[in-house]
Amino acid sequence: MMTVKEVAHAPLKKNEEKASYNIILLGPPGAGKGTQGQAISLKYGIPKISTGDILREAVVHKTPLGVQAKSFMDQGKLVSDEIVNGLVRERLSQPDCLKGFILDGFPRTVQQADTLRKMLEDFGLKIDAVISFDIGEQELISRLSGRRSCPKCKAVFHISFQPPKKSGICDGCGGALIQRDDDKEETIKHRLREYQEKTKPLLNYYEKSGLFHSLPGDGSIESVNKTVERILSKQKME
Ligand code: ADP
Ligand code: ADP
Ligand code: ZN
After folding, report:
1. 82-127: pLDDT as tens digits
2. The model's pTM
3. CA distance linking residue 136 with residue 139, whole number of Å
4. For residues 88 and 102, is the Cβ–Cβ distance under 8 A?
């Protein structure tokens, strides 16, 4: 089997287009990264990689890594860079990422961003767009406290802003929706503080890259989606 790097560098066959969008979604908890990421993932047929989802799976299965991560997540603190970087390296080396990927919730620290840069170099890949959702704290709190999540298919809903057809049931897979433990008010505050301290500096980091796009995240899901699509189609023309 060819390695990821070999596949990425394999000569393209005639008429074959290397269609790839490698996207980073940035923004505070509740900004809409998961919701918009899911929409892009469906539209372009590229995987959405959510480090939060990967970590929650590890917690459910009580893997050694999950056990280690759990207490941090419960407190609304970031899990160590070392753990998360390892998870992302493993995920990005899967062949489905060659047609593109959406990073949702990674990187979250400057150290993670530096590691990602090196990782992508190793794989012969590069980022096409960094899309950052700008939104106020009050809106984030109402979004997070009303969020309901499907542990089975990872779809997200909101009790008022995006209610499922049947209360408590996932539209996608029929699974029972839950409220995440860290979506309770006290933990939300910790997560927002972590964002301010550790993740916000990334905006400056990526602003210098020329790939950075910031948009208001507080419009409707549809209007934010239109803006995201506009950014991506413009990016593709360049
Ligand atoms: P949200 O999208 O609501 O911000 P996530 O599902 O992305 O939440 O993350 C949930 C929790 O998982 C975080 O509070 C943190 O503990 C952990 N986590 C997820 N991604 C990372 C990351 N890149 N670095 C460190 N911790 C992370
Ligand atoms: P993140 O992944 O950034 O933490 P999510 O995509 O999970 O954010 O969205 C957080 C909550 O807000 C979810 O309950 C979701 O249904 C809701 N939501 C997402 N985008 C919007 C929007 N544009 N307007 C209103 N609610 C939204
Ligand atoms: Zn589901």
Report:
1. 999 999 999 999 999 999 999 999 999 999 999 999 999 999 999 9
2. 0.92
3. 6
4. no
| Predicted local distance difference test score (pLDDT) of residue 234 | 83
Coil, strand or helix at 62: coil
In this structure, are residues 175 and 204 in contact, taking their beta carbons and an 8 Å threshold? no
**CB 135 within 8 Å of CB 27:** yes
- Do the strands 147-149 and 156-158 form a parallel or antiparallel pair, or are they unpaired? antiparallel
- Judge if the beta carbon of residue 78 lies within 6 A of ligand 1: yes
The angle, 0 to 180 degrees and rounded to 10, between the axes of the packed helices 110-123 and 81-92 is: 30
Contact 114, 132 (CB under 8 A): no
CA distance 128 to 146: 32
Domains in the chain, CATH or no CATH each: 4-46+99-136+197-237 (3.40.50.300)
Residues marked as catalytic = 33, 108, 147, 180, 191
Kindly give the number of the ligand 2 atom that is closest to the alpha carbon of 149: 14
How many A from CA of 203 to the centre of ligand 1? Answer: 17
Alpha-carbon gap, residue 155 to 178, rounded angstroms? 11
For 156, the token pair is 């997200």
- Which residue's CA is the nearest one to ligand 1's atom 5? 52
Of 42, 43, 199, 222, the closest CA to residue 132 belongs to 199
